[in-house]
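dumping this here so i dont lose it
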């Protein structure tokens, strides 16, 4: 064996009780943390590389996380140079939970560096703006470093690593990959190596990434929608736009608006329903129900300012939701208050970007079938 080949035999730390699951971590809420596709890919690649030099991948392998800590993962050997690590997303509702992250490893030419390739079920980049070359496998920078560092724990010789994920294309259908120009499967992702349940950081990152891709493609319009129904309505209203131009922002209107302005766009359209638009009208750019409430007094003041019927004014503070106010406006054929709310939301959005953006605000009905008011 070459002096550069440094296979690491499997040995589990004595302090890790055998009856405890590998990688068991919980957050402050008691929810189980999971592992990113990048972490699982690094473990599978290291196991397969170990098999290349020992004849078989080990039944478990440890890898380093970006913070320097180490974790152990169970391995499913598939012949001498192929290994599978099954992704456990913890208590996060991740569409890639249970993905069988598979690595096949072989020797590379001595004059070439270690190379990573996308096999079936792993996406390939076809559009600029992701920070990855067009034609490259969709493996972001932190997972790439994790994989390469894990391989160096086995050998210093250059290797060829092909990553694949059975059913990865089906999983990708539940992500924004196709819209971002990533075709063929899921991405190998993760900046910390750990999946945090219901991570707001992950959602914000996906919003930022999609806006960056739209800008890199030279698009001049981005449409922000609060959810799937409003996004479908926005697409119907703007059929000529590329799918990447439609960004589902959820509760992160402020994040999206700032990013759109930062990427050099000068105009955007925001499509939402009454509740979130009312919160924007009050200057609240993070619209999650636990972080902010609908301001009934604001709605009442708006209704009075446009001389709406008394029933509409009363409905503003009758409940803590905007839906009752919205439905009362429709029942009384009083669109004026809803238009005024859109106008206030537009003003707040434009102020939030320090005047760098002009913003059209469209209020959809609760089925997402039509625009009821706009400004």
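and the seq i came up w/
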């Amino acid at each position: 064996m070459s002096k550069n080949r440094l296979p690491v035999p499997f040995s589990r730390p004595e302090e890790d009780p055998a009856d405890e699951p590998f990688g068991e971590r919980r957050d402050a809420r008691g929810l189980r943390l999971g592992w990113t596709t990048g972490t699982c890919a690094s473990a599978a690649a290291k196991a397969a590389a170990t098999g290349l030099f020992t004849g078989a991948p080990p039944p478990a392998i440890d890898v380093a996380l970006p913070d320097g800590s180490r974790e152990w993962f169970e391995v499913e050997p598939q012949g001498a140079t192929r290994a599978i690590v099954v992704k456990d997303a913890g208590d996060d509702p991740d569409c890639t939970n249970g993905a069988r992250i598979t690595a096949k490893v072989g020797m590379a030419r001595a004059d070439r560096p270690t190379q990573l390739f996308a096999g079936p079920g792993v996406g390939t980049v076809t559009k600029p703006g992701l920070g990855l070359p067009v034609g490259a496998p969709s493996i972001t920078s932190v997972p790439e470093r994790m994989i390469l560092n894990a391989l160096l724990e086995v050998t210093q010789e250059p290797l060829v690593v092909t990553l694949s994920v059975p059913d990865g294309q089906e999983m990708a259908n539940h992500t924004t990959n196709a819209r971002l120009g990533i075709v063929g499967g899921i991405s190998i992702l993760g900046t910390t190596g750990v999946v945090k349940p219901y991570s707001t950081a992950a959602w914000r990152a996906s919003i930022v990434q999609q806006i960056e891709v739209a800008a890199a493609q030279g698009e001049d319009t981005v449409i922000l929608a609060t959810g799937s129904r409003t996004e479908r309505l926005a697409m119907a209203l703007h059929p000529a736009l590329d799918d990447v131009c439609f960004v589902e922002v959820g509760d992160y209107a402020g994040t999206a608006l700032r990013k759109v302005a930062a990427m050099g766009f000068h105009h955007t359209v925001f499509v939402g329903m009454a509740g979130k638009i009312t919160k924007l009208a009050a200057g609240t750019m993070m619209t999650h129900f636990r972080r902010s409430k609908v301001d009934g007094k604001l709605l009442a003041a708006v209704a009075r300012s446009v001389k709406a019927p008394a029933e509409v004014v009363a409905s503003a503070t009758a409940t803590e939701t905007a839906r009752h106010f919205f439905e009362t406006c429709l029942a009384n054929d009083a669109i004026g208050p809803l238009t005024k709310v859109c106008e206030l939301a537009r003003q707040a959005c434009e102020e939030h970007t320090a005047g760098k953006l002009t913003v059209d605000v469209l209020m959809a009905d609760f089925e997402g079938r039509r625009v009821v008011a706009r400004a």
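Residues 26 and 32 are 4 Å apart (CA to CA).
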